[in-house]
Amino acid sequence: MDSHYGRSPSNKTSGWVIFAGVFAGLASIGNLLYGLTLLFNDEWVVLSRGTLISFDLTTVGVIFLIFGLLQLFIALGLFNGDLWARVLGIVWAALNLFAQMSFMSVYPQWSWLLIIINGMIIYGLTVHGDEVASF
User: Fold this and answer.
1) Which of 7, 10, 30, 39 could bridge 61 with an S-S bond, Cβ 3.0-4.6 Å?
2) How many domains does the chain have?
3) Which helix (H) or strand (E) is 133 found in, with range?
4) What predicted TM-score, i.e. pTM, was given to this entire model?
């Protein structure tokens, strides 16, 4: 089907891949902000007894910053339709899914929400990832 400019429209990616890219980008922003918060004001986070986190919060902040930058590159790659971004997006979503299970006792509603979203990202990138057209 031709557009009114005489060119055929290019469907570079499916809606599910765009969904995964948007959520990877949002998670990236959240992790970058959380990492910066832990680096510059680690008293902001209060850990109670019985939590699974046993690291120095500054170290956790650096980990969140690195993870957030990786997520940002994954999101940009998903919007570009890159295969490496789909593969890393699936790995990232699976790791994040399991990480949320460790925070289940701290924030159960948030953990369940992110588990569901990560499951949808994995679904979108595995089932609909091949819909990404190459130029």
Assistant:
1) 39
2) 1
3) none
4) 0.72
